[in-house]
Design a protein that fits this description.
The strands form 2 sheets. The chain has a 4-stranded mixed β-sheet with strand order 1-4-5-2, with helices on one face. It has a two-stranded antiparallel ribbon with strand order 3-6. It has helices at residues 90-115, 123-149, 155-171, and strands at residues 6-7, 21-22, 46-47, 49-61, 64-76, 82-83. It is α+β, with helices and mostly antiparallel strands. β4 (49-61) and β5 form a beta hairpin. Mean pLDDT is 91; it is low at 1-16. It is 39% helix and 19% strand. The N and C termini lie far apart (37 Å). α1 packs parallel to α3. The protein has one domain. This is Secreted Zn-dependent protease. Pfam families: DUF922.
């Protein structure tokens, strides 16, 4: 069984008009959330499309940045995510859920980094660079997760990743979405 994961990383919250599921601790993905038509040419059993969105506003007085606000979210994109019902099972769904959980972890890390920023004339550029950097880190970790678990086939590795991500999410609980 091969599972491949796709990540959609968007810059601004309002860019996508398609339906999204925002990450919540109380909500776990179900197969009914995966709305796209499966790619029967693919060896993948499921594709999870998730990403981190960034929206921000900057307040200026007399040409000087005096404050800024951000909105950073982890989203799942149902219309870009799919699965093959004849090959999918709960173990595969847990693997896909953890991809979404990893996206939330990196959204929290992003919020943490933003919380350390001060107002500056370059804040827009700084936020965009942070977004680019966090997305590169997210992609790298998602790829490591798939490689180390062999796309969920290594059950022990899957369990280790689940425990690790759960602990990391807990560690960044101060930076969870509102």
């Amino acid at each position: 069984m091969l599972i491949r994961t796709c990540f959609v990383l968007c810059c601004f919250l309002l860019v996508h008009k398609e339906p999204v599921i925002s990450w919540r601790d109380s909500y776990k993905l179900t197969w009914s959330d995966f709305k796209a038509t499966p790619d029967n040419q693919s060896n993948a059993v499921a594709i999870t499309a998730s990403g981190i969105t960034l929206g921000f506003s900057i307040k200026q007085t007399d040409g000087k940045v005096v404050s800024f606000k951000t909105e950073i979210d982890a989203h799942f994109y149902p219309e870009q995510s799919w699965y093959k019902p004849e090959k999918a099972n709960n173990h595969v769904l847990q693997h896909e859920q953890l991809h979404f959980d990893i996206t939330e972890l990196y959204a929290r890390k992003f919020r943490y980094r933003v919380s350390k920023l001060k107002e500056s004339a370059n804040i827009k550029r700084i936020l965009q660079k942070l977004h680019d950097d966090i997305n590169k880190e997210l992609t790298s970790v998602q790829n490591s997760y798939d490689t180390e678990t062999n796309y969920s086939r290594h059950v022990n590795a899957q369990a280790k990743w689940q425990a690790y991500i759960k602990e990391e999410i807990k560690k960044y609980s101060k930076y969870k979405s509102n």
